[in-house]
Amino acid sequence: MALVVALAPALVGLVRKVRARMLRRRGASILQPYRDILRLMRKEVVLAENASWLFRVVPYMVFAATWVAAALVPTFATGLQFNWTADLIAIVALLGSARFFLALAGMDVGTSFGGIGASREMMIAAMAEPALLLAAFSVSLVAGSTQLSTVAAFMATEDVGLRVSLGLALVALVIVALAENARIPVDNPTTHLELTMVHEAMVLEYSGRHLAMIEIAAALKLLLYISLIGCIFVPWGIASGGSGVAAYPLSLAFYLGKLAVGGVLLGVFEVSIAKMRVFRVPDFLGAALMLGLLGMLLLFVSRSL
Amino acid sequence: MSAVDLSLYCVAALLALGLAAIALRRSAAISALVYFGSALLSLVLAGAGVAVLAGAAEITGRVLPVGLPWLGSHWRIDALSAFFLLVVGFGGAAASVYAVGYGRHESEPQRVLPFYPAFLGAMALVVMANDAFSFLLSWEVMSLLSWALVMAHHRAAGTQHAGYVYLVMAGFGTMALLLAFGLLAGSAGDYAFEAMRAAARSPAMAAVILALMLVGAGSKAGLVPLHVWLPLAHPAAPSHVSALMSGVMTKVALYGLIRVVFDLVGPLEWWASPAVIVLGAGTAVLGILNALVASDIKKILAYSTIENIGVIVAALGLALAFRANGMAATSALAFSAALFHIVNHAAFKSLLFMGAGNVLVATGQRELDVLGGLIHRMPVTAFLVLVGALAISALPPLNGFASEWLLFQSVLKSPELPQAGLQIIVPAAGAMLALAAALAAAAFVRLYGVGFLGRPRSDVAAKAIEVDRFALAAMGALALVCVLAGIFPGVMLDLMAPAAEAMVNGRLPVQADEAWQTLVPIAETRSTYSGLLVFLFIVFSATSSAWLVHRLASRRLRRGPAWDCGFPSNIANTQYGAGSFVQPLRRVLGTILLGAREEVAMPPPGDNRPARLLVTLRDVIWDGGYLRLAALINSAATQMNRLQFLTIRRYLSLVVGSLVSLLLVLTIWN
Amino acid sequence: MIGLFANPAHVILVIPAVFAVLLAVLPGYRLTARLNVLASLLTLIAALSLFVVPRAAPGAFLLVDDLNIVFVVLNTFVGFTAAAFSASYISHEIETGKLTPAYVRFYHGMYQLMMFGMNLALLSNNIGLMWVAIEVATLTTVLMVGIYRTHAALEAAWKYFILGSVGIALALFGTILVYLAAQPVLGEGEAAMIWSNLIVRAAEFDPKILNLAFVFLLLGYGTKVGLAPLHAWLPDAHAEGPTPISAVLSGLLLNVALYAVLRFKMLIATHPEALAPGPLMVAMGLLSVIFAAFMLYRRRDIKRLFAYSSIEHMGIIVFAFGMGGPLANFAGLLHMVMHSLTKSAIFYSVGHVAQIKGTQKIEGIRGLTQSHPVLGWGLALGVLAIAGMPPFGVFMSEFLIVTSTFAREPLLALLLVFGLLVAFGALLMRLAGFIFGEPTGKVGPAEASFVPLYAHLALVLAAGIYLPGPVVAWFQSVAALLG
Amino acid sequence: MDRIAFDIAHLLAGGLVLVSFMMIYQDRLYALLNVFALHAVLLSLSVSWQAYTQHAPHLYVTAAIALIFKAIVIPGVLHRIIRQMGIHREVEKVVGVGVTMLAGMGLVAMSIVLMLGLTEAADAFAREDLAFALSVVLLGLLMMVTRRNAVSQVVGFMSLENGLILAATGAKGMPLVVEISVAFSVLIAFIVIGVFLFRIRERFDTVDDVALEDYRGEVE
Questions:
Q1: N or C: fewer beta carbons within 10 Å in chain A?
Q2: Which residues, given as ranges, of chain C have pLDDT below 70?
Q3: B163 in helix, strand or coil?
Q4: Hey, which chains touch B, using 3+ CB pairs under 8 Å?
């Protein structure tokens, strides 16, 4: 569990680095996020007069929920202790709780930007969550389980073959991942131009250690999604619970590799596309929803044949 | 004394309480007496239910020499009845305790007190009835009393309309039930449930009965498109009654549906199930969409009730589909999901309505746009409502998620269904349910964020004060239930297993002996969820991280003005309001389903009035269906009314005309 | 003389006859009002004694059997409560000067005469005598409807009178036809008009004459029952007459006419080849229900509103008897009794309401539960009961009618349910207006006796929950009698 | 004897139907009253013939009532009413005489078909009588619904009732005939008195011109 927390900022750093490179900038080092977080940790918190206790609790809740979710995704090994605590659906819902709290925090201080952020975030979530669930459905229908370890183990075996519905699910999952992590084209994590902000607008009033917790949570979320996609669609190299500790270093290396590839791809994708209007986002996510549904239906067609 | 007798005595006592309330309407202590009494008796009812469910008390019946003379009135508590008796008692107890405090603020208590306990009793009777007449009698009495309660504030604007629509819809539903039971009883007219169970009927007949039940019970439970009365009536009632109506009475209606569809009609063909599934899913989505755009707290809650009813009905439809294909275990899974969600919804919806009641007491307002910042003025209420909001938004580790998780598990079993039609419909319904869940989260972020967070939008909100202890205690108990049921779902499932077993003659594996209270509905490898562990992990990581941060990093804190990108405004209305919050979703989803229209009224150049954004919503079902029907009846009445103003000669010619025509008939008949 | 009083049936007839004369001559409305109540009470007691005293064999003129006991007891009971109600009502009318003592004397005399007529009609064993008795009852009610001498009242009385006379004429023709059918079998003279003979030998009559006769009788007496489209007199007669009379009309006279129809239905039904009377009655019943249901919506006058609801319920009852069979007949009888009790109760409350508010216009009556809780809730209970809400008796009868019909004739049941729902909607809309909202008009205290009102409601409530075994057995035997 | 008896009865009954048609044909009130008197006379004749053939002396009473009351008193009273209240002498028809006649024909045809079709069992006597009686009744009703004046409607009702008496006497040995005819005379008396009391000039439809306004208390 500690592993994911440790890795998350590095991943963010990697993405930023790639983007900078693509833009012909040198960019900050991959470790920059760690420094940022430490800096924020040390700073004092400036709290709006109107903020309630909820506002101060939220960062830790968000972090906790995200962390638990992330810890439940098989990273480099399946059948780990407690990985049966919750399944894919529960993970989706955990992220949902994190978002719920964040949106509430956005509305707590009573500023217009917080409201904008919360409102848009909930709209995006309203489209993204079903899409994610549908993708999860079609995956778990193939694997006959919503238990990620089982899914990963099953995917690693040969008898999966190449299924069109899995491809559709992958696309859907990627789109959702982009939306959920507030990446371009849905949202721009680096912007501070008010009207384009979603995630940033919600956390606008946060500062100091609170902001740090939220940053970590965001990074964790990104890591979660990439490792999720990794363990479902490219499950190779994940050590099964049976194989002893000896297998771990190798699979760990595999895992790091996957993360790196994911991060690079994300960076490349982000620089090569423009951000879209907020009201085009639903269409974007609606496409994901449709893909998820289509994938599932195709699954049945291929089955009932 | 057997459970059924005990419960009957309780009901009698409740009715007596109602009469006492009439007799002692002058005395001051009567309110507290009535509510304490109802609370106590409800607890006994719940206890009786638990006893039967847990197998401590055996299933017995009782025939009283009243009701239909040659039949008597049959009462019986089997597993299903016991489960719903538990729901009634539990919800009733909570609402009563709440009302001990809330009732003090009632303007005309004599319009509430006589009906309230009787209403509880009637609901208990409905779930205990074991013959058609007793069932319908209790059912209709329940409607009638709830109507009387809705009309308690009869001088408030809109209450009369609400009460009228409610009672007419109730009458309509009862007529449908009458017809359904008429079919069940057959021309011999044997109204006892045993006889109905024993009788054999054709699949078509069974399907017709199912349809009639969906109309009859559905209209009471709030299935779209028969839901129109619900968002009118529930808000109009006093809040503890709203809690009962939303949290319990709709469940009693579902009991009627379950009792007939799963028990009395006997086996149903698979093709009967898709209608139920689609109806449920559609209800869920439409209900929550309306909740999203409503701006009256209690209306929002009422619409979200419709959503949850939709979820439950969809689950029941799944259970039907699986049962028709002999997949008993899976059917039990879906059915248990439905039952579990029934309990959960009873808990958190009552909790939320009580919260709305507190807000009403503290501010006298139900409109979101005049509230805000209540978390500072009413911290306890705010916290408890937050728990309820989390639970109803199906967020782990609370109970709402546990039941929805089970439902999704059963949806995922759909590929094993033989019929291609179901294979396609079930996942689509699952998608709609997922959408509904996500929208529910949005709706309650809106409700809580606008109502309780931010800055107060009016003086009343700024001057609100926390309510009395009884109310808070009742809400606290409900919140605790929400948490516990979320952490130990296995206990609940085991408790309600007998009911499921009786209806779909299959059951879930016993959950009690799983490690860490894990839910294993089907198989370890397939899907597991341990609310307890999730809860522990979250608590642990949150506290530990907070502790670490405060310990190792800074703990300094300074209050300052809000940043708000540099230009904070102290005008409260610059915050996001109820309308603005939902605007994106309204634009995305509302245009068709809600007929939402936006137009900007731009003043002409030189005119310095501000431009206004006008948002119009129209209820498509109400305008298109109900108003049209009303117009038809009206015009028909107007046409016929001419007959009131004829001359005597014309009336005579009517007589002569009918005479001659009959004679002609006779002539031809010979 | 002793022989005369040995048979309660005679007493039931003698008491009203005597008191009719007495009340017509005695001065002082208080005394006469009390005497009126007393007379009705005595009649009721006599009627009740019908149960205990062994029944005399059917005579040339009088007959006592299960069927008409139901009606007689109901008749005398409601007659009694109505008298009690009218005592308080009439005194108010005199104080407000709407009636002069002379008229009151006339009123009380007529009241007893009317009771006499109705009891005679119910008890008579001779179809000719029955016809005469019903005519007497009709004429007396006509005179009482017109007692206020206002244009509207005279208008109503006149319309009632003309339509009633035509109805009577048709009924007479039907009676003659029955005699004609019976005469070849039973021989000439009295024998062929004695009902107890007719019913025994009915199977041998000429079916075709019976058919023709039934058409005339159904239309003739149906006019009195108030079946659409023969109903025209009913709403106005109810609306314009004194309220006790409205109660008696709805509660009793309609039943008496219905009783006549039933008698002849039994006659026809016993005949194998005769055209089954059922479909005719079902059709007229349905027509009345649906028609009245729609008419409820446009009513401006509260008494006319409930008059139309009487038409609706008569339709339901006729429908039930038309369906036939033990269940439906039982339900029909039950519904008839319940309707009499409930509707008269409603009229009692309406009478007081109208006196308090000084108007019968619906828009003038608001918020009664606020201004007059006892009266308002009484009215509310009555209306809910008549609308078929449990736990009142009407619910039980409607439950039986609908369920038993739907299994046999789904389409008819659907039509009936439609009518019921439409009527329900109308009644409830009005009810909400009456009892809720801000009170309008005068809110002076009601000097009224609520005993009759709540006595009826209590009975209806009790019947809805628990029917005593004897009553049930008795109803069932009657239901069997009705075939 | 029997044959002649039958023919005479037939003749008289048929005569009644014929006179009913004559009444429908009239368009002057006075003439209408005279024709009605004739109707009553014919009725009393046929009743007394029945009394003679059935050897039922009590029927003579009925005949007498018909003769005195209906043939003389009532028409006289109506004459005076018309004169005193200055009711204008036209018979106001809803539909033309021709149409009414045709309708009447249809009714008569129907009633005869019905009766002859029906009563094989009953003896010819009664059968013929009933056939005619029914047609008289129906014609009376027809008159009531196709005439607007109060007076002509009263006349229509009385002719209807004549038909009833005819039927009652036709049914052999029917008891209570006298009582019934008395009762009906009372009824008619009421109606005539009503016409007089309420000063119904023109129509049954309203008691008084004033009442035309607040019509049945329910003006929408």
A1: C
A2: 1-6
A3: helix
A4: A, C, D
Assess contact for C156 and C147: CB atoms under 8 A.
no
Q: Which domain holds residue C373?
A: 279-483
Neighbours of C133 (CB within 10 A): 23
CA atoms of A151 and A103, how far apart (whole Å): 32
Q: Which residues in chain B are contacts of D205 at CB distance < 8 A? A: 647-649
Say if residue B377 is in the same domain as residue B523.
Answer: yes
- The total of structural domains in chain A comes to 1
Residues B393, B474 share a domain: yes
Q: Which amino acid is at A22?
A: M
- The answer to whether the CB atoms of C180 and D122 lie below 8 A apart is yes
Neighbours of A26 (CB within 10 A): 8
Whether the Cβ atoms of residue D67 and residue D44 lie closer than 8 Å to each other: yes
The helix/strand/coil state of B365 is: coil
Q: Could you tell me if residue C86 is inside a domain?
A: no
Provide the number of structural domains found in chain B.
3
Across the strands, what pairs with B532? none
Q: Would an 8 Å CB–CB cutoff place B667 in contact with chain D?
A: yes
Give dist(CA B563, CA A109) in Å, integer. 10
B401 touches chain A (CB under 8 A): yes
Task: Tell me how close the Cα of D34 comes to any Cα of chain C, in angstroms.
Answer: 23
Instruction: Specify the pLDDT at position A80.
Output: 62
Q: Say how many domains are in chain D.
A: 1
Structural domain contains residue C433: yes
Residue D192 to residues A110, D142, D143, D168, Cα–Cα distance (Å) = 88, 20, 17, 23
Tens digits of per-residue pLDDT, C308-334? Answer: 999 999 999 999 999 988 889 999 999
- Prediction pTM value: 0.93
Cα–Cα dist B203/B206, whole Å: 5
Strand B73-76 to B61-64 pairing: antiparallel
Q: Using one digit for the tens of pLDDT, what is the confidence trace for C223-274?
A: 999 998 899 899 999 998 899 999 999 989 999 999 999 999 988 888 888 7
Give the minimum alpha-carbon distance from B634 to chain C in angstroms, rounded to a whole number: 8
Residues B445, A104: C-beta atoms closer than 8 Å: yes
Count of CB pairs separated by less than 8 Å, C with D: 123
B128 neighbors B75 (Cβ within 8 angstroms): yes
Chains A and D touch (3+ CB pairs under 8 A): no
Confidence of residue D28 (pLDDT cuts 50, 70, 90): confident
Handedness of CA C11, C12, C16, C19 (dihedral sign): positive
Q: State the Cα–Cα distance between residues B443 and B450, nearest whole angstrom.
A: 11
Interface test with D, best of C161, C179, C214 (most D CBs within 10 A): C179
Q: Decide if A300 and B560 are in contact by the 8 Å CB cutoff.
A: no
Q: Are B555 and B346 in contact (CB under 8 A)?
A: no
Question: What's the pLDDT band for A304 if we cut at 50, 70, 90?
Answer: very low
Phi and psi at residue B517, in whole multiples of 5°? 55, 35
Phi, psi (5° rounding) for residue B599? -140, 150
pLDDT in tens, C425-452: 999 999 998 999 888 877 777 777 788 9
- Does the residue B209 lie in any domain? no
Q: Is residue B322 part of a domain?
A: yes
The verdict on a CB contact (< 8 Å) between D114 and B647 is no
Q: Which of B546, B554, B580 sits opposite A208 (nearest CB)?
A: B554
- The partner residue sitting opposite C158, judged by closest CB among D134, D168, D194, is D194
ipTM of this complex prediction, to 2 decimal places:
0.90
Shared-domain flag, residues B394 and B316: yes
Count B/C contacts: CB-CB distance under 8 Å: 162
Q: Do B653 and D203 touch (CB under 8 A)?
A: no
User: Is any Cβ of chain C less than 8 angstroms from the Cβ of B610?
Assistant: no
Domain that holds residue B587: 577-616
Do D and B count as touching (3 or more CB pairs closer than 8 A)? yes
Question: Is residue B516 in a domain?
Answer: yes
